[in-house]
Amino acid sequence: MKPPYQVPSMEEIRSIPWNGFTCASTFSGCGGSSTGYRMAGFKVLWASEFIEAARDSYQANAAPYTILDGRDIRQVKPKEILDVLKMKPGDLDLFDGSPPCASFSTAGKRQAHWGKVKKYSDSAQRTDDLFFEYIRLVDGIRPKVFVAENVSGLVKGTAKGYFLEILSAMRALGYRVNCKVLDAQWLGVPQARQRTIFIGVRDDLNLMPAYPKPLPYQYTVRDALPWIKRIEEANGLNSVGLGSHRMLDANGAMPTIQASQPVKVESETDISRYAIGNEWDKIGRSGAKSDKYFQLVRPSLDEPCPTITLGAGALSCAGVVHPTEKRRFAIAELKRICAFPDNFILTGTYAQQWERLGRAVPPVMMSHIAATIRDEVLCKIK
Known about the structure:
globular
């Protein structure tokens, strides 16, 4: 029997005892991976994020001891990180990185963008070379373990050449490196989300990389948003629109994610005035996909949510929408689908907050990866 779906609050995460191990993070986004490390007891001492909107969200949730660097990673030198942490090469326990992955995504033109400056979030930059910037920092810092993640598309099709080059460069540094594609839906997240995870352990430690085992259960959209059941009973599956009955439970009360905080449904969630709103009506039921718009889907209530893509928060863009109401997910609901704490602070517009979640590694997923490395690698170092 699976336990109830629950992500610890930020207060609970802050109270988790330190496990004795230190971590630094690059390409940190809003802090999905960092939050997962903190859930496993790590201290994230240093983090790097170039995109200002993402950096604002990271800072709003960061531990007071975390140093946040906003420079382009190409300008950051390993010695600068070590100096600010008062460490020598080899001292840091874990070095994390999530180099931007749009160039390797299976959606879009992929290789057409390789080697070129292109729009990335709120900036324009080349992104397909950033994995090698991460590797440069690993070489100078010499952490005991490194973890790097990317989209599953990195190991597919024309991107395989990049993948093999990255793997070879990592192993040439003197690390035992494995790579696996993990799916968040088997690691406590109510969302199907595949990520390529590299784990490297320094050769002199004589230990192999370790990965978490899949859980024997999955969480569903209904598990993440339990009030949907009450809404169904009170109003009927498809009758809850954007009018006065929205989000009312069977007792006529606003359902809450936290006891003291009602669910806020942003006005930007409304898709009724767009073509995808008309298509939502034609789809007819949760669990169905659109024949006209490839990415438009009303997720099944009794399965994990399909992958939340970073661009689907744009007003007229097709993507995953709410299963029982003609709208997108509210940010409060999306945090649950993405396994973030309910009170995790996201700054910026609705679309920017959606992008932050769409780019992030789900914290619960990373907590399983981090806990396995803690127990199977770092705790065994003599």
